[in-house]
Structures are given as structure tokens and as C-alpha cells.
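New here. Your pick:
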Amino acid sequence: MKFRIFLLCIFNVYLLNANMASPVQEGTFGTRPFLSQYVHILHENLRITIDENFQYADFDIEYIINAEKDGNQIPLLFYASDYYENFEVTIDGKKIMLKKQESFWDLYGDDKEKLTNFHYLYNADRKEVGEIENNFKYGRSERISLNDFLYFETDIAAGKHSIKVSYRASNWRFKHNRLNEDSFRYALAPAKYWKSFGTLDVTIDATKVKDNIGINLGTPESGEINGITNYHFEKMPLEIIEITRQPKLSGFAKFLLNLESFWLAIILMSLIVIFHVWRMYCFRKKHPKKKFSTPAFIGAVVIPFIFIFMLIVTTLWIDSAIGEPYASGRESYGAFFQFLYLPKYLGIYIVFSIIIDFIFKKIHGKKA
């Protein structure tokens, strides 16, 4: 019974190790609006200004639209999930009061349906709202919650109008390995539902950012990646614009990263193992006929414990060398579970100690 309880505890520890923390710290998922079928976007200006610590970015967007008809209507739907602060919209210079949807997804019939002009959001029989999904990195798929839409109703005349949107966004953080992967994201994907695609100008201001950054938009029209960068597109270039931070690491940190904690621990432990082998040699030189070697026995038991401790120390050492805000700390979480592998390391080193002691016993036994 006690043995079963022990196995259950070990199994639970493995489960905890596997699920100790989510590798994704979600930030703001900025996205283009969903358009009414009577609205066309002629041009979009997107400006992203990133703060020096790569934690927040200010998004300033202008949509030049053409309305096919006049009257009171909902021209755009904004997906406004997890914006950090200050989500504001103006139309032709006038600030608009935004509303959050509550129950209009459940209203059917042309006489009361507020979103008649957003037919592509519904399934074929219009009995329920269709699913809208966005693909993320590392195989994740995130369904957009329809409860996160913001909208406004306004009385606009047919013709051209300027709609400006501004908000502050927080970064995304992926912690699936030793280094944090920080990024800002803006989805162009809703343009797949638009009747037409106008031109797009993108300006990314990274002049304050201390680190190097990467932008997945290709070669810019002008500017420098770590300064003010300008892009111009006649068609949708990709589904998600992603701006990533590239950590600045010292040469020493890069050296430790290349070694990894296991091999760094092996190198450091080699001195202890050499000393242990030397003690076994000295013992067998004096006592070639003794059945058991005291240094072999003590070392076989103690050294695997020292090795696990060394693994923990080297893991923490590498994270410390990487430093904030680049080190994810994920490896450090797992370092303390190395004791689960103690039976494995004990078995390997006991066999090693027996073999070495046997060799020394043979050598000095012949001399005696």
C-alpha cells in the first residue's frame, strides 16, 4: 500500500512538472474592424509607437471610408478584447461614444436586427452567429469572442469619411524556452471579409526601444528598423503584423546558453568525479584485497545528489546571466524537479563506480 502511495505521489509530481505554468502571457490582439457591406475602406494609415521597455505600444489608425448609403447605421465593428487603455474613436473629427454589444446577436428579423449589414458573421441559415477563429503561433487557435465587439451607430452621409482609432496595447510574451519572445500584433485578417481592399501605409516608430526589433513586413519603403520605418501596400501583405524584440545578450550569456545547464553541470562535476576516481585508486592501492571500497560506496551515493544540486545551480546561473526582461525563468521552474531523476543518476553512477573499483582492484591485486 505504501509503495502504491509513493508511485501516486511521483505521478502527481510529473503532472505538476508538465503543467507548471502556461507558456503564453497574452497581450492585446489588435485587429482591423469588421465592415458593413455598405462601407468600403479606401485607405488605411497605421502608426505604431513602441515604448522603450517594449511593454506597451500606442496604435493610431485612420480609415478613409466610402459609405454607399446615408442614414443611421453601424459602419464598423471593433474587436476590442484586452486593450490596455484609452480606446477612442472619432469620425470626421468628432469623438464617438462606443457601445459594447449585449444582446443584439440574439435579435433576428429585418425589422430589429442591428447587424443585417454584417451578414458574413452569421451562418447560412442565420439562426446563430458563425465562428470566427484566428491562428496563433505554436499551433494555438484562439476563437474570437463575439462579446468583445465594440460598435457605434451614427448618422452619416453617403461618400467619403475619416474614422480614427487610438489605443494603447500591451505586448504578447511566449515563454516556451529560456528566452522570452515578446511581440506586438495587429491582425489584417478581417480584410478577408471586406468587399474591396484599399491601400495600406504602415509606420512603426521604435526610436525609443533599447533592443533590436524584428518586423515581419519585409523590406521597408524607407527608414530603419530600429528607428522610424515606413511601408506601403497595394494589397493585404499578410494576416498578422508582428513586431518582435530581439534580446541583447552578453558574450558570456550566449556561451552559457550554447552549453546549456546539463553540459555545464557535467563540466563542473568532472573535477569532483576525477577526485573521486583518485580516492578510489588510492584506497585500492593500500587495500587491494578488501571486498568493498569505502570511497567507491560513499561517492556512488553522494555524487548523484551533488550532480542534481549542480544542475539546479547552473540553470539558475544561466537565467541570471541572461537577466531581465529576457529570461523566461521557465527552465528554473523545472530545475527543482531534477530530483525525480535521482534513481536514474544513482543507477548510472553506481555502475560506473563498481566498474572503476573493479579495474583498480585487478591492477593492484596483481601487484600484491
